[in-house]
């Protein structure tokens, strides 16, 4: 895995850029970034979309609404490019409540039991927007906010200030996520957050991947390896029981690559589980997952500094959403690999802590590396 990139000494401020197109080239290869207006929010704020291209022709599109990954176009074994992420052609689809296509998810990604947690003796109550539980930051989480975008030489940095009390969380949190597309065909995401009051934080990207091409078919033939010998079992409401169990030999076992469909019928409702990444250490990029799609030959490797990864098989898509190119998104036509801290960690003292205090800086990195064979 490539070492972390150094901070670029030079960056472009959006206020100094043309309103329509930015064509600055990076120091590496032919990478460049273009900016356009994608539309407006319901409050009339402009939403900017950035197209990042690398020297090999790969292309990522990201936008200020939800700090969202809108498109990731990568080649197959014959060099044919295809968009491998689900989403919408127009902004309108993203402004409505949708299944978190490509979003930056927070302030707390995944679930918090019964929508509450206690920190330093104070109990904080959050929205219960997933049955009895809190999910992905609440009614209007980070995915439904218009972030500020800054174009960099090979990517885009999005920033947002979450007010004290927003969605019930304590502390004013300043957060950024930076997307970088390297000439090694890696899409790198760097998250940074600070707070002025003790709070909890768990950030992830919620892209729906289909390496055949977005929404083209079910993902049962995708071959998945998870470098995870353990997972966190859940109750009937998808809240961890607090135990950590071995995956060995069962349907949850992806320690050796296998087709996602091989044991799918043995998992009630489909996969939607947090796996514990082997040898994960704070600040260390560790290989968590590898996915290969046999027809196209496309491969995606996921490395992260996070301790967990949520494997989800789009169990709640039902054919009612019309996405890019008029594609109807059916059940199980995508997979998510959400790098994260464990669900419900604020209520699970045995899990890695998600507490962020004043004077501390939350940092997290995830890298998606693409190839074909």
Description:
The chain is mainly beta. The protein is 1% helix and 37% strand. Mean pLDDT is 92; it is low at 1-29.
How do you describe this structure in short?
This protein has one helix spanning 91-95, and strands at 32-40, 46-53, 59-63, 68-75, 81-83, 104-105, 111-112, 116-119, 122-125, 134-135, 148-151, 155-162, 173-181, 186-195, 199-200, 204-205, 223-226, 230-231, 245-246, 258-259, 272-276, 286-292, 298-304, 308-312, 321-322, 328-329, 336-340, 355-356, 362-372. The chain is built from one helix and 29 strands.
Strand arrangement within the widest β-sheet reads 11-12-13-14-29-23-22-17-20
Outline type? globular
Gap from first CA to last CA: 18 Å
**Stretches where pLDDT falls below 50 for ≥5 residues?**
1-29
Helix content: under 10%
Q: What's the helix-strand series?
A: EEEEEHEEEEEEEEEEEEEEEEEEEEEEEE
């Amino acid at each position: 895995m490539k070492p972390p990139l150094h901070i670029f000494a030079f960056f472009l401020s959006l206020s100094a850029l043309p309103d329509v197109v930015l064509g600055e080239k990076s120091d590496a290869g032919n990478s460049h970034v273009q900016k356009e207006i994608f539309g407006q929010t319901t409050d009339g704020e402009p939403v900017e979309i950035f197209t990042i291209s690398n020297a090999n022709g790969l292309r990522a599109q990201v936008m200020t609404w939800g700090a969202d990954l809108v498109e990731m176009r990568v080649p197959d074994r014959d060099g044919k490019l295809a968009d491998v992420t689900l989403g919408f052609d127009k902004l309108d689809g993203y402004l409505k409540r949708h299944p978190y296509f490509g979003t930056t998810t927070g302030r707390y990604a995944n679930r918090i039991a019964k929508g509450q947690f206690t920190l330093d003796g104070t109990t904080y109550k959050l929205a219960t927007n997933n049955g009895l539980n809190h999910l992905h930051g609440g009614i209007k989480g980070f995915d439904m906010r218009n972030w500020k975008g800054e174009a960099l030489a090979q990517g885009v940095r999005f920033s947002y200030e979450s007010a004290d009390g927003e969605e019930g969380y304590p502390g004013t949190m300043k957060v950024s996520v930076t997307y970088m597309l390297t000439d090694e065909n890696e899409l790198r995401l760097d998250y940074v957050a600070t707070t002025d009051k003790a709070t909890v934080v768990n950030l992830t990207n919620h892209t729906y991947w289909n390496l055949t091409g977005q929404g083209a078919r079910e993902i049962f033939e995708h071959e998945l390896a998870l470098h995870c010998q353990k997972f966190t079992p859940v109750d009937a409401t998808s809240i961890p029981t607090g135990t950590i169990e071995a995956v060995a030999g069962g349907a949850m076992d992806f320690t050796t690559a296998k087709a996602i469909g091989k044991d799918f019928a043995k998992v009630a409702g489909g996969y939607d589980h947090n796996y514990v990444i082997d040898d994960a250490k704070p600040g260390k990029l560790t290989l968590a997952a590898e996915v290969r799609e046999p027809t196209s030959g496309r491969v995606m490797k996921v490395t992260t500094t996070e301790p967990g990864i949520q494997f989800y098989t789009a169990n709640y898509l039902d054919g009612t959403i019309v996405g890019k190119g008029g594609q109807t998104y059916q059940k199980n036509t995508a997979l998510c690999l959400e790098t994260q801290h464990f669900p419900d960690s604020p209520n699970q003292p045995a899990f890695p802590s998600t507490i962020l205090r004043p004077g501390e800086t939350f940092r997290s990195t995830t890298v998606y590396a693409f190839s074909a064979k």
